[in-house]
Amino acid sequence: MDRTTFRGFLAGFDWAGVERRPYKEDGTAPFRSISRQVLFSDPALGCELRYFEMDRGGYSTLERHEHMHAVMILRGHGHCLVGAEVRPVATHDLVTIPPLTWHQFRATPDEPLGFLCMVNAERDRPQLPTEGEIRAMRQDARIAAFLDGRTPS
Ligand code: MN
């Protein structure tokens, strides 16, 4: 069996033959203006490589889980929350998300933010924060500003 794949890069951060999908298919988690493309997914590989893209001002779900993420920003800039830290991120920066660590990515208002995300093929379901957990996170002014989309670019 020929398992070779070659998919050309297209204008607009699409790849030939790769479907751009809604971010969460079950519609249960809060997020805004984000799409998902699965670039590599082979049972023999044990991991998947996906490309996520947020429109201007968009954000991913605030969540945590046992599995890890390894992220490389491919397009634009924004901020990420990882645990207790809010950091600016820009094209080609690398971010790892440790197990059971709250995380969220937010695009700046002026341009889309796109990133590659490597993840285990078999993984646990993301957990969403309770109201009490969000209140606790908001004790940190920088995290509160981030969650409200007020982080300066
Ligand atoms: Mn995640």
How would you characterize the overall build of this protein?
The chain has 153 residues and is mainly β. The protein is 10% helix and 42% strand. It has a single domain, classed as Jelly Rolls. The protein is built from 2 helices and 11 strands. Strands 3-4-5-11-6-9 form a 6-stranded antiparallel β-sheet, with no helix packed on it. The longest helix is centred in the C-terminal third of the chain and has 8 residues, at 131-138. The chain is globular and about 55 Å long. Manganese (II) ion (MN) binds next to loops. Manganese (II) ion binds at residues 63, 65, 69, 103, 126.
What descriptive keywords fit this protein?
single chain; 153 residues; mainly beta; Jelly Rolls; 6-stranded antiparallel sheet; 3-stranded antiparallel sheet; 11 strands; binds manganese (II) ion
Please give a quick description of this structure.
With 153 residues, the protein is mainly beta. The chain has helices at residues 131-138, 141-147; strands at 9-10, 14-15, 21-22, 32-41, 47-59, 69-75, 77-82, 85-90, 94-97, 103-107, 113-120. It has 2 helices and 11 strands.
Which helices and strands occur, and which strands form pairs?
Blueprint: E1 9-10, E2 14-15, E3 21-22, E4 32-41, E5 47-59, E6 69-75, E7 77-82, E8 85-90, E9 94-97, E10 103-107, E11 113-120, H1 131-138, H2 141-147
Bound molecules: manganese (II) ion (MN).
